[in-house]
């Protein structure tokens, strides 16, 4: 699966995508993550991507032209099959809340193009005419769309076949069912004493070796938190 990210701060993505699961998936050719500097599609000598808002108000608004030019060029690079299975997503504080279902849905596409806003926002014509949808990762405001784009790429990538080592790991994860979270996990030591007179113990059922009892306990804990 291919991800294209349009941002004015490409270096923000360098660290995250060169570590752990995503790094290994990229090395194996399962994921293709390309981060593009939006300023490359400006036409003035200062590479200006923003301007004052019509009607007045604080801050600056990102312009529609660089996004339009960038998307036209990126789409021109696609094959007919890839173009038909491409989704353009604007990361936006006013967008729909990104959920587990969205991650699964978006993983079915061949290519995702993620648009990262900055400043006071993005010219509404980007959302209305260029993006297929707007997504938000929560009811709060961030300084830009870069972190949300990383979240979306991470969550979607986990559903790309082969990215995770075991299908069972994906099936048992939190939110794999609507409103249900993963059961609690424990590992050694069996008893941990952070200070004198205090001990934190692993639930006895997990030490019993009784697989049916463990499965029932885990299912109960998953449902309880839902």
Structural notes for this entry:
This protein has 226 residues and is of the alpha/beta class. Helix content is 31%, strand content 21%. The chain contains 8 helices and 9 strands. It has helices at residues 20-27, 64-76, 80-84, 100-106, 124-129, 146-157, 167-171, 211-225, and strands at residues 2-7, 32-37, 50-51, 61-62, 86-97, 111-116, 133-136, 191-195, 198-201. The protein has a 5-stranded parallel beta sheet with strand order 2-1-6-5-7. A two-stranded antiparallel ribbon has the order 3-4. A two-stranded antiparallel sheet has the order 8-9. Helix 4 (100-106) links the parallel strand 5 (86-97) and strand 6 (111-116). Helix 4 crosses helix 6 (146-157). The longest helix is centred in the last third of the chain and has 15 residues, at 211-225. The chain is elongated, with a radius of gyration of 22 Å.
Can you write the helix and strand succession as a string? EHEEEHHEHEHEHHEEH
Number of helices: 8
What is the distance, rounded to the nearest whole angstrom, between the alpha carbons of the first and last residues?
31 Å
Helical residues, percent? 25-40%
Structural class: alpha/beta
What is the mean predicted local confidence, pLDDT? 91
**How many strands in all?**
9
Q: Rough shape?
A: elongated
**Approximate strand percentage:** 15-25%
Report the major sheet: 5 strands, parallel
Uncertain spans = none
Nearest-angstrom radius of gyration? 22 Å
Lateral arrangement of strands in the main beta sheet? 2-1-6-5-7
């Amino acid at each position: 699966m291919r991800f294209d990210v349009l941002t004015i701060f490409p270096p923000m993505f360098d660290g995250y995508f060169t570590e752990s699961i995503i790094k290994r998936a990229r090395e194996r050719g399962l994921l293709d993550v390309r981060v593009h500097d939006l300023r490359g599609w400006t036409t003035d000598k200062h590479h200006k991507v923003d301007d004052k808002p019509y009607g007045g108000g604080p801050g600056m608004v990102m312009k529609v032209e660089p996004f339009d030019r960038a998307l036209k060029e990126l789409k021109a690079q696609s094959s007919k099959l890839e173009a038909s299975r491409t989704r353009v997503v604007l990361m936006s504080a006013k967008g729909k809340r990104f959920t587990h279902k969205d991650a699964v849905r978006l993983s079915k596409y061949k290519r995702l193009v993620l648009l990262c806003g900055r400043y006071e926002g993005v010219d509404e014509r980007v959302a209305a005419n260029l993006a297929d949808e707007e997504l938000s990762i929560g009811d709060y405001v961030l300084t830009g769309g870069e972190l949300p784009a990383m979240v979306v790429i991470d969550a979607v990538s986990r559903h790309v076949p082969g990215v995770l080592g075991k299908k069972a790991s994906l099936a048992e994860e939190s939110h794999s069912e609507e409103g249900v979270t993963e059961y609690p996990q424990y590992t050694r030591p069996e008893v941990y004493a952070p200070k004198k007179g205090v001990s934190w113990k692993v639930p006895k059922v997990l030490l019993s070796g009784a697989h049916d009892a463990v499965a029932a306990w885990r299912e109960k804990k998953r449902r309880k938190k839902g």
